[in-house]
Hints:
Elements: H1 8-31, H2 36-53, H3 58-63, H4 71-100, H5 109-112, H6 117-188, H7 190-209, E1 215-217, H8 218-236, E2 240-246, E3 254-256, H9 260-270, E4 279-288, E5 291-299, H10 312-324, E6 329-335, E7 338-346
Helix pairs in contact: 1-2, 2-4, 4-6, 6-7, 6-10, 7-8, 8-9, 9-10
Amino acid sequence: MHPILAFRGRLGPYLAAWVPLAGLLAGLLKIGGMTWLHAALLAVPLAVVYAFMCLAAWYPCRSAPLRGTSFAKVVVTQFAAAGLSAMLWLFLADTWLVFLEQFPAFAVAGERFPRLVGVLLAVGVVLYVLAAALHYLLIGFEEARQAEKTALELEVLAREAELRALRAQVDPHFLFNSLNAISSLITTDPVSARTMCFELGEFLRESLRLGGVVTIPLAEEVRLAERYLGIERVRFGPRLTVDQEVDDGVGTCGVPALVLQPLVENAVRHGIAHLVEGGVVRIAARCSGGRLCLTVENPVCAGPTTRGAGMGLDNVRKRLAALYGSDASLDARVVGGAFRVELTVPESRPPVG
């Protein structure tokens, strides 16, 4: 694709650059003995014609690119093309002058033309070389832009692959833990085990329905977390209580799919499961200053625990980094006898209408 003709906004500035060149050419013809009128009527049409002729410099530039071609081949190719173009231009100049000589006012102009042949030939070579240099510059610019575009596409593909890999970790990890819980209930409480199997099936159905979706509305993500907590409530009974504080209007905010599930899973496995009396898992969501803040909190026992040793928090951190870079954060710490995970992401909402 021609780097000038393929873009609407480039041909105008390119032709405009030839206006001062036409003036310089007219000045050379004036110095050669022509009047200003004769020089202008000869130089301006020749400059316009040669401007379009020099657009053909793109083809030698493509056949002898600077990268991967020897310097000698580039020089030979371009100067051969410059010589041919200059001679053709000289022939057109002579033809135009013959036409002008048909008018009495230009009868003497042809007498001075033979002395200007060498000058026009040299000017033609120089102008063509300048046009070739411009085409090399534009070709290099297009290649750099294409390389940047390719690099961005590869970066996006790599990020999507990383997100898919991280997402793939969540499902088997959760499934492994749920199946362990079901196996422990089969002998002690078969009815609860069957209920838990049903709830697990419903949760997996909703999870699979998301497919390759990267982000979902917060309201849907909260429902998925509730489905998971419903599975765990079968196992823990009254020991597990859930408290939600989701501000009005934040349900439409987009969040990474299954970002809450690892957090509430950790809250149950590393918090509620270690307390005889159980406790409350609190889920909160609010928006402030263009940021969406999600909080998951659970009680912890006074003694040492393995809280946070699993892959859940690390997985969420990596997914946030892949999606938002440094524009998202995840903070996990013990506050007043409770383990709190606070996740902050940019607020994003679907377009209205």
